[in-house]
């Protein structure tokens, strides 16, 4: 099927906090198309419970925020990037307040009202602005309503980006991004969308693991598309496992916020005893990598299916007031957090690496930007400090919008028109079971071999499996009409490969990358990010009719 090519100034792939911020920060005369796999706003940002970190109190400082970020990053966070983000935290919160995001407030001792601030693991001060325990929902629904009211923004829900289109892959000498091929999941057709700038705001890759706190969309799409287009990718070995995901047969991916521990919750063994003080002097307030590894260690040592998080010693009214969403959800599962411990396990939560970008969100390809969790900015290093992720979305969404506006104003050169999608020689598959089996196998061996604790042998096994599966998936992709599951499977295979390659190249334990073969940091040389450089992308060629 051949469709006319649609044209916009900016194509935003993803509709979480980063993408929504970008859309609202762009000038209203710029034509914008925003893609979402499901409904607009649905994604990891929507389910973020904790909040946004920002320096708002006189007792706190940008220097302290930067220091906490660098400490959590285990030597791999870029100090200049950490300062760039921390310095813009106050302005980002002011913008959200002006947008009428319903943040939680309290009365100071002098009678004045102020934003209520949580403290979370790794932070030296209370600096987490939040909307009870549903901050992501409050931010995304507020921003989504404003985006929907913008006449310059075209929303395409239930659309998946298949690949970005670049001039070099079409045979032109000077490279630039020209748009993307997009699968309309409802109509099952692929359309070409031309754009002067394309922005990847597609989230992380935690769905590559069997157990994750993320919603269904976190399949590393932006990272995989950028890699195939020729962009560098960095630090994919650093996958954050949230320590406390609800363990319940009916709970697929429900997170118990970091803020629960910040308000005094204790981690317990099955016998009711505490254990975190044996792993870190900060106990339950240690950074997530330390807490997740401690829980993983104790579960394996005891053969336990889960451990427990207990805040029942706090006043019940306080718990219900501060964590209404979590409290209500747990009651649906028959758990009263005001009276009993919560069963928890670690789960893949956040991708600290991604597409290499500069301070304006620019990738290696002119006209292609990336913002949010799909990026490597240098902020998170070997581990992400809690609640720095939403802040990064806001800061880089704003920076990218400013840079894109400047680029569009100066760009007068006509871009090549991308060709329409051609699937005239492919067929419908009668082997969908291949997709589901490969999907399941990738997520299982990544959990078993490339999870919280790794070894050389486990990584070698994972390397062997992904090499075989990548060939199977490439053959399948080249012969059959694509589906949403096939698009995500293809991307999961790419990000699994990138994670394994990065993990195999780091011969030390640092932050979120922990290997029994090298259990300590390598002190012989300064720590460096793991940067992977792709081979030059080959020109598009017809493969049974497919470009």
Describe what this molecule looks like in 3D.
This protein has 547 residues and is α/β, with parallel strands linked by helices. 34% of the residues lie in helices and 17% in strands. The protein has three domains: 6-237 and 352-410, 3-Layer(bba) Sandwich (FAD/NAD(P)-binding domain), CATH 3.50.50; 243-348, Succinate dehydrogenase/fumarate reductase flavoprotein, catalytic domain (Flavocytochrome C3, Chain A, domain 1, Alpha-Beta Complex); 432-521, Methane Monooxygenase Hydroxylase, Chain G, domain 1, CATH 1.20.58.100. The chain contains 14 helices and 20 strands. Strand 4 (105-107) and strand 5 form a beta hairpin. Helix 2 (62-72) crosses helix 3 (79-87). The longest helix has 24 residues, at 456-479. The protein is globular, with a radius of gyration of 23 Å.
How are the secondary structure elements laid out?
Blueprint: E1 6-13, H1 17-25, E2 32-36, E3 52-53, H2 62-72, H3 79-87, H4 89-98, E4 105-107, E5 113-115, E6 117-118, E7 128-129, H5 135-148, E8 153-157, E9 159-166, E10 177-184, E11 189-200, H6 221-229, E12 233-234, E13 239-246, H7 258-262, E14 266-268, H8 288-302, E15 307-310, H9 316-322, H10 324-332, E16 342-351, E17 354-356, E18 368-370, E19 375-376, H11 388-410, H12 432-449, H13 456-479, H14 484-505, E20 531-532
Parallel strand pairs: 1-2, 1-11, 2-8, 11-18, 17-19
Antiparallel strand pairs: 3-7, 4-5, 6-7, 9-10, 10-11, 12-17, 12-20, 13-16, 14-15, 15-16
Helix pairs in contact: 1-5, 1-11, 2-3, 6-14, 12-13, 12-14, 13-14
């Amino acid at each position: 099927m051949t469709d006319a090519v649609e044209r916009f100034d900016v194509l935003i792939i993803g509709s979480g906090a980063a993408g929504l911020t970008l859309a609202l920060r762009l000038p209203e005369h710029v034509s914008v198309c925003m893609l979402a796999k499901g409904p607009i706003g649905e994604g990891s940002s929507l389910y973020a419970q904790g909040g946004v970190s920002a320096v708002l109190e006189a007792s706190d400082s940008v220097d302290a925020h930067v220091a906490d970020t660098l400490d959590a990053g285990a030597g791999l966070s870029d100090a200049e990037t950490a300062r760039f983000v921390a310095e813009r935290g106050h302005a980002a919160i002011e913008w959200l307040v002006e947008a009428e995001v319903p943040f939680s407030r309290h009365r100071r001792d002098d009678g004045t009202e102020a934003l209520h601030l949580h403290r979370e693991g790794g932070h030296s001060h209370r600096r987490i602005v939040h909307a009870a325990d549903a901050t992501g929902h409050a931010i995304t629904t507020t921003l989504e309503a404003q985006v929907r009211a913008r006449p310059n923004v075209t929303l395409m829900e239930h659309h998946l980006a298949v690949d970005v289109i670049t001039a070099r892959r079409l045979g032109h000498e000077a490279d630039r991004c020209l748009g993307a091929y997009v699968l309309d999941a409802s109509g099952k057709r692929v359309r070409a969308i031309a754009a002067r700038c394309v922005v990847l705001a597609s989230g992380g890759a935690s769905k590559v693991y069997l157990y994750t706190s993320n919603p269904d969309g976190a399949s590393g799409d932006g990272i995989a598309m950028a890699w195939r287009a020729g962009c560098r990718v960095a630090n994919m070995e650093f996958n954050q496992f949230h320590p406390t995901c609800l363990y319940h047969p009916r709970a697929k991916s429900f997170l118990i916020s970091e803020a629960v521990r910040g308000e005094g919750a204790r981690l317990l063994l099955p016998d009711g005893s505490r254990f975190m003080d044996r792993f870190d002097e900060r106990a339950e307030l240690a950074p997530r990598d330390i807490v997740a590894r401690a829980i993983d260690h104790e579960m394996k040592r005891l053969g336990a299916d889960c451990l427990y998080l207990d805040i029942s010693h706090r006043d019940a009214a306080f718990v219900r007031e501060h964590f209404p969403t979590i409290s209500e959800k747990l009651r649906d599962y028959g758990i009263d957090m005001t009276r009993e411990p919560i069963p928890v396990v670690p789960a893949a939560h956040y991708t600290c690496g991604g597409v290499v970008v500069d301070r304006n969100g620019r990738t290696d390809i002119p006209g292609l930007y990336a913002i949010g969790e799909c990026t490597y900015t240098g902020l998170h290093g070997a581990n992400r400090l809690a609640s720095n992720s939403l802040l990064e979305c806001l800061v880089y969404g704003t920076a990218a919008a400013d840079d894109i506006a400047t680029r569009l104003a100066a760009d007068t050169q006509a871009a090549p028109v991308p060709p329409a999608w051609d699937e005239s020689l492919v067929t419908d598959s009668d082997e969908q079971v291949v997709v589901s089996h490969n999907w399941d196998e990738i997520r299982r061996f990544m959990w078993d071999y490339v999870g919280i604790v790794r070894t050389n042998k486990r990584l070698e096994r994972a390397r062997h499996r992904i090499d075989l599966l990548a060939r199977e998936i490439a053959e399948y992709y080249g012969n059959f009409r694509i589906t949403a599951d096939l698009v995500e499977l293809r991307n999961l295979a790419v990000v699994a490969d990138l994670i394994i390659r990065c993990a195999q190249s780091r011969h030390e334990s640092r932050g979120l990358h922990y290997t029994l073969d090298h259990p300590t940091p390598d002190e012989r040389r300064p720590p460096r990010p793991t940067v992977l450089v792709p081979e030059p992308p080959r020109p598009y060629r017809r493969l049974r009719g497919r470009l």
